[in-house]
Amino acid sequence: MARLIWCLCLVCTVVLTAAPSSWAAESTGLPLPRFVSLRSDEVNLRTGPGVRYPIDWIYTRRDLPVEIIAEFETYRKIRDWQGTEGWVHMSLLSARRMAVVVGSQHRLRADPDEKAPNVALVDPNVVGHLLNCPHAKDYCRVEIDNLQGWLKRDEFWGVYQGESIE
């Protein structure tokens, strides 16, 4: 009987040791860091990856772009445009690419050219949908309040230098 128990323990140990890492943690395999956006008007930013960790901040801005910098099971560590970091559940994030205007007021242009006419003046902290960023170009096409136009890459946060979005 003791030998049977020992064999069962050995089999259990082998099975648990050989178990795929996906049993212990869920990872997307997508590159880190990467940009996503908030899916909800209320998103709890926690100090750690789970509901047992305290809420450090509550975002109240759907579509705000954030950067995923780490993954642990169903939680993602994010960073916002101001450098605030914390953990959110992956269900509260969307792959939709967004942009937040930084610095001062900027001109939303009709074409990707400094001399192009203005479509609108855009205030800091305004969030818009990132439509495309041609490779090796200074401008990206965005939609803000149903107006489409072009912003320089350094006038908003939500895209990596040299990143192409089609």
Alpha-carbon distance between the two ends: 66 Å
H/E topology pattern: HHEEEEEEEEEEEEEE
- Tally of individual helices: 2
Task: Find the count of extended strands (DSSP E, 2+ residues).
Answer: 14
Query: Uncertain segments of ≥5 residues (pLDDT<50)?
Result: 1-25
Helix fraction, binned, reads: 10-25%
**Rg, Cα atoms, Å:** 22 Å
Q: Could you say which overall geometry the principal axes of the C-alpha atoms support?
A: elongated
- Mean pLDDT level: 87
Order of strands, main sheet, comes to 6-5-4-1-7
Structural class: mainly beta
Oligomer: single chain
Task: Kindly describe this structure.
The longest helix has 16 residues, at 2-17. The chain is elongated and about 55 Å long. It contains 2 helices and 14 strands; from the N terminus they run H-H-E-E-E-E-E-E-E-E-E-E-E-E-E-E. It has helices spanning 2-17, 21-24, and strands spanning 34-38, 43-46, 55-59, 65-72, 75-79, 85-89, 93-94, 98-101, 106-109, 118-122, 127-132, 139-144, 147-152, 156-157. By secondary structure, the chain is mainly beta. Strand 2 (43-46) and strand 3 form a beta hairpin. Helix content is 12%, strand content 40%. The chain has a 5-stranded antiparallel beta sheet with strand order 6-5-4-1-7, with no helix packed on it. 25% of the residues are buried.
